[in-house]
Design brief:
five-stranded mixed β-sheet; alpha+beta; 3 helices; 60s Ribosomal Protein L30, Chain: A; two-stranded antiparallel sheet
């Protein structure tokens, strides 16, 4: 496995999107000590937010893809703030899934994001995670993820 996170991304053929700017009075990434706390972010495709309700007008596969897009956006924001090569691992994920009342496969949707981390950091560095179903999310997005990452201590704040 290549040594740097950037090199591992390239090896996996993953491309980061342009990082999103905050949509309100908050920071996208807040660094405290050796931790980067990333605000809740959602999926963007071709510069626009993806919308839908999982289990109604969106399949589980499309929702997993949206979770993957969201994780790539999270990584893009981390890269902009502190440099991706200073990221050691993700320690915590909370995945909110906008779903129909009968939908129960929230963890499977969250795997779309976790699998990016699995490929990037390996099985021993997977984060703790919660997957929660919600009735609504901003801009009608189907997935929102907030996260905490461990940094190497040389990232600067």
């Amino acid at each position: 496995m290549p040594e740097t996170t950037t090199a591992r991304l390239a090896t996996l053929g993953l491309t980061l999107p342009s990082p999103i700017a905050p949509l309100g009075s908050y920071r996208t990434v807040s660094i405290i000590g050796n931790q980067a706390h990333v605000s809740g972010l959602g999926p963007f495709e071709n510069g626009a937010p993806v919308s839908g309700v999982v289990g109604e007008d969106m399949t589980i596969e499309r929702a997993q893809y949206c979770a993957r897009l969201t994780m790539l956006m999270i990584l893009a924001c981390l890269n902009e703030q502190c440099g991706l090569d200073h990221v050691k691992r993700c320690t915590r994920l909370t995945v909110y899934v906008r779903a129909s009342a009968s939908f129960t496969q929230h963890p499977a949707v969250a795997n779309g994001a976790s699998d990016v981390l699995l490929d990037l950091f390996g099985p021993n560095l997977l984060p703790a995670r919660s997957a929660i179903g919600v009735h609504t999310l901003p801009m009608g997005i189907p997935v929102e993820i907030d996260s905490v990452f461990e940094l190497d201590g040389n990232s600067g704040s």
